[in-house]
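Encode chain A's predicted structure.
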Amino acid sequence: MTLADIIPSSSVAEPGSPAWWLARLLEGLAVQADMADRLDTYYQGEQGIPVHANRSVADAFSRMMSIANTNFAFLIVEAVRERMAPGGFRTGAVPDRRGDTEAWAMWQANALDADCDLVHRSMLALGAGYTIVGREPETGQVVITPEDPRQVYAERDPVHRRLVRAAIKVFHDDVAEVDRAMLYLPGKLYRAARPAPLGASAAGRPSISLSEGGWMWDGPTEVVPTTRIPVVPFLNRPDIFGTPTGEFQLVIPILDRINYTILNRLEIATLQAFRQRAVKGLQQRDAEGNLIDYDNVFAADPGALWQLPETAEMWESGQVDLGPIRSAIRDDVEHLAAVSRMPVGYLQPDNESAQGVQYKREGLVFTAEDRCKQAGESWEQTMSIAFEAMGDEERANRTGMEVIWRSVERATLTERASAASQAQAAGLPWRASMEMFFDASQQEIDRWEAERAAETLRSAALAQTMREAVTPLPPEAPVASPAGPPASTTVEAPSAAP
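Encoded structure for chain A:
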């Protein structure tokens, strides 16, 4: 296929053909991208306030509407994402507790120890995230890339929910000024392109039309080095039909209510920042019947002296009590915390007891464990496809693949050390206690174990040196004469003179 081959529309394309799949997947991507864009405005805090007003009012209060946004959606997502940290992989080749070093080397070679957060954040905030597995043409190295749900869409098998039967990626090439599409079908990759309008952008990124018209095949069909589609979806809270839900999607009405109440508070505070003053009982005309101009009489000056008629009375407007509005906002935040299973202390200052905070934190822990379980299946699928692309069938075995997640619990160093000591006293191996209570990776445990062994050798050598320094030397034995009994050492006195 060449760029001159115009792709027919779905109405005339043969069902199951590449052109038919292109049109079908573009339609699914458009629906997914619309929902992801809406959720992203809440995650970025750019959703605006749901106020029905004419244009003049909206323009006058635009700045106030922007500062009335409190980004609770960001907190809900990040509180879960921060607890999702893969620490290794077990494969069919190395199924032990320490994990497979080859799998972890591939993970780090693709910078996924950092970039996995991009996938998790997209999954939680936008409802879906993706990875694509490929190979570098020059080196043959396996490449795993995180993808955005506004550019990538995968259609799953209706019988096997986690089996992808077709996928597409659409992106804008700003160098060539064209939109490009990559269509993945079993064992094959088709590329298509079409001219893109100049200067089209939205929210700081290129705006891509997802209509099916105007596409042309771009280059020959490529062979994918895997039997499976190398596109893996990461879906957040999917239902039985596979439809995902963003982490804060179900609490959007509460988010709107909170921001609308905050806007009302700001409006009242702004309109009543200065008290309105008036004078009652003033004469409107003087003795000659002329209107009295009071503009210069009541000068706002520290040195001004006002002379009022006997019947005049000063009046000043009162302030509206904002306490009930603030209380309503706190109540709504508590409702948000309850529905989203977030500890109240994450969303607003809270003076609860430590036991109460711990109890409410369990909901967040259970949520993070569930999201790790869902994402873990997709990471295992990703790594399995990557090893298949390398030709390592033993490690590509899906049944032997398992993600080693770091603990979603958060404890102080004192609590961890105490728990590890008690567990080791009860017979838990040292390596297992380091992994379980200190949330250490296998590389960290290996390094600590080597340093521990070296320190033990140094301590033994130092102890031996100290023992030799304090031990007294034994007394020397007398030296024996070479022949006969030892000579007498007695000295005879000289005889007296005759």
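The CA atoms of residues 256 and 434 lie 45 Å apart.
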